[in-house]
Amino acid sequence: MRHWPTFADVCRLESSPLTEYQRCVTVLGEDGGEFGEVFAAWNRRRFPSLASIIQGPLHELPQIVFTLRAVQQPASIPMSLASLNIITSTSESFSGSLMHIFFRIGSISENFATVRKMYEVINLQNRILDGTIPYPQNQQALQMGMSIEFRNVCFQYPESNAYALKNISFKIGQGQLCVILGENGSGKSTILKLIARLYEPQEGEILIDGQDIKTLKLADLRQAMAVLFQDYTHFPLSIKENIALGDPGHSDDLDRIKQAAKLGGASELIERLGEGYNTYLDRPVRDYYSGLPEGTTNLFGRPVSFGRVRAMGGMKINESTTLSGGQMQRIALSRTFMRSLVSETSVGLLLFDEPSASLDPTAEHGILSLYTDGSADLFERLRLLRGQKTMIFSSHRFGSLTRHADKILCMHDSVIVEEGSHDELIKGGGEYAKLWNLQAQAFL
Question: Can you tell me which residues the record assigns to a coiled coil (predicted)?
């Protein structure tokens, strides 16, 4: 069987349709002319549906009855014409009803197929095998943070021949603040994903509190972490519910949610919205209002805001709220604070992957600070409010957090090239000092 080029090979989404068409012709070659013939042949091989098989005889039934009646009793042809009209109307009505039934059956069949796919996904075997040892075995020790050790870890992403991490070894003690620095693609995010067990290393081992990470129960391990990755997700819920997902056990505690939003720099943003914390980022089900008297503030237990509805065919509909990338990141950061800074006893490790990547300088450096003097930036808040938890923070930008880090891992080309404190690495004059001076020159 001929190997067809993949869609990714053919379609590169060029700006010019003509250029893309020429690219398709070049890549497909002679196969391009045969594609239409293959598709037509596939259509011819498809079996007709039961509805189409029945519809044909039903359509011809009146003519068949009229012909038989005329042959058997020629004198009754006028009566046969009347019968023909009745039979035609009846058969068309019956045929339409039958087609509608088959259409509904087909729709139900498609829905069942979708449900079956959902169950198939649920039944998929997890590639990350679960451990058997509960974690933590000492809840009080968890409050002092988690220790992490990488021993000669190598990792390649699926379907990639390049190493994302090459022979990585380091150790982070309980309660330490570790900053991982490096250029984009150097492997910073990969380290955090391996700690969260989103992937398994091909070589080496990872130890949590001296135990092989593979032996620990996966749910327990992740319950003891608070993570914020770059590819965070927002759900079709209210802002309050999106933040509360960081600690679902306190989803009804509005004071805690507001505290987390303040720490994440999102409180002022939320308060400016028409519905505040009840604002929906993306409404799964829109609210339509018709004939409600002005002044109605509550309907079926849900707040009604006439300030954020628009007319639509005599109805009123609540719209979703669109936020910028930086604003969405503040909501995600607030969710992480909800989990990490409220759940003091259940979380021992904080993982932050470029938490300020989409934030503007004001959001990052003080205007949205928790403190009244506005002096503490996002990095300083993370440092002061983490308590005794272990924190790992990845970034390609230098901030005040690096000066207070117990350990800095400087990465380049998937390996750790330097390790130490800020002062030690500056004195060393290596990769860290080069990146520090390069970024400092932009402000001189």
Answer: none
State both tokens at 423: 């002062």
Q: Of all helices (H) and strands (E), which one includes residue 221?
A: helix 218-223
Count of other CB atoms within 10 angstroms of residue 78: 8
Each of the 444 residues of the chain gets a pLDDT tens digit; together they read 444 444 444 444 444 555 665 666 666 665 555 555 655 555 555 545 555 666 666 666 666 666 676 667 666 566 556 666 676 677 677 777 777 777 777 677 777 777 888 788 878 888 888 999 999 887 777 888 899 999 999 999 988 888 999 999 999 999 899 999 888 888 899 999 999 999 999 999 999 999 999 999 999 999 898 888 877 777 888 889 989 988 888 888 898 899 888 888 888 888 888 778 888 876 666 666 666 677 777 766 666 655 444 444 444 445 556 777 778 888 888 888 887 755 567 788 989 887 655 454 454 444 334 333 333 456 666 766 777 889 998 887 776 678 788 999 999 889 999 999 988 988 888 888 888 888 777 655
CA–CA gap between residue 306 and residue 22 (Å, rounded): 53
**What single DSSP character describes residue 273?**
S
Q: How far apart are CA 389 and CA 339, in angstroms?
A: 13
Could you give all domains of the chain from N- to C-terminal order, each with its CATH number?
Answer: 7-122 (no CATH), 139-224+348-441 (3.40.50.300)
Buried b (16+ CB within 10 A) or exposed e, 348-383: bbbbbbbbbebbeeebbbbebbbeeeeebbbbbbbb
Phi and psi torsions of 84, nearest 5°: -60, -45
pTM here?
0.64
Neighbours of 153 (CB within 10 A): 21
